[in-house]
Amino acid sequence: MKGAFEHRFPPELAQVRILRKALRDQLVKWKIDLGVVDRALLVVDELVSNAIEHGGIHRVAHEPLVLRAALSGTFLALDFEDPEVPPAIVHELQKSLAGDRTALPALDSERGRGLFLIATWLEKIAVSVIRGGGMRLEGRIPGARA
Question: N or C terminus of the chain: which is more exposed, having fewer CB within 10 Å?
Answer without folding.
Answer: C
